[in-house]
Amino acid sequence: MTTAICPGSFDPVTLGHIDIITRASKLFDRVIVAVLVNMEKKPWFTIEERIDLLRKATEGIGNVEIAGFDGLLVEFARQKGASAIVKGLRAVSDFEYEFQMALTNRKLAPDVETLFLTTSSENMYLSSSTVKQVGLWGGDIAPFVPDCVRDEILMRIRQRSHKI
Ligand code: PNS
Question: Strand pairing partners for 35?
Answer without folding.
Answer: 8, 68
